[in-house]
Specification:
elongated
């Protein structure tokens, strides 16, 4: 199948497929006129690559993991496991950073609400000021 059909069947853009080839994630054969041709198996490969991207992996990491998928061996599996552990650690650190950022925003929101409730709302509603001073 040609690149447009693969793109349609896999639900990705032609541009993405070209990028995958540039990164060594996807391979095609070429016709005499230079058109890319793919097999039906490439659909599953593209879907797999998309899942890895969605999980936050970079093209470099995906390229390091693909040999384990393509030709499993003890060496490939060990290398893939090491790389996945590195990625998991990176993602865990990123999650910790996001949690800290969320917690800091929560604290700022508490401060902003307190300021609004104690200073801004009474200014806007004179009856609250009168009640507070009575």
């Amino acid at each position: 199948m040609r690149i447009g059909e693969l793109a349609q069947r896999a639900g990705v853009s032609v541009r993405s497929l070209r990028y995958y080839e540039e990164q060594g994630l996807l391979h095609s054969t070429r016709s005499a006129s230079g058109q890319r041709h793919y097999t039906d198996e490439e659909i599953e490969r593209v879907l797999f690559i998309q899942r890895l991207y969605a999980a936050g992996l970079s093209s470099r990491t995906i390229a390091a993991l693909l040999p384990c998928v393509e030709s499993p061996s003890e060496e490939n599996s060990d290398a893939a496991l090491d790389r996945m552990a590195e990625e998991r650690d990176r993602l865990s650190a990123h999650i910790e950073d996001l949690v800290q950022t969320r917690d800091a925003l929560d604290a700022l929101m508490v401060t902003a609400r307190a300021y609004r409730d104690e200073v801004l709302v009474p200014r806007k509603r004179p009856e609250l000021r009168a009640a507070a001073s009575a």
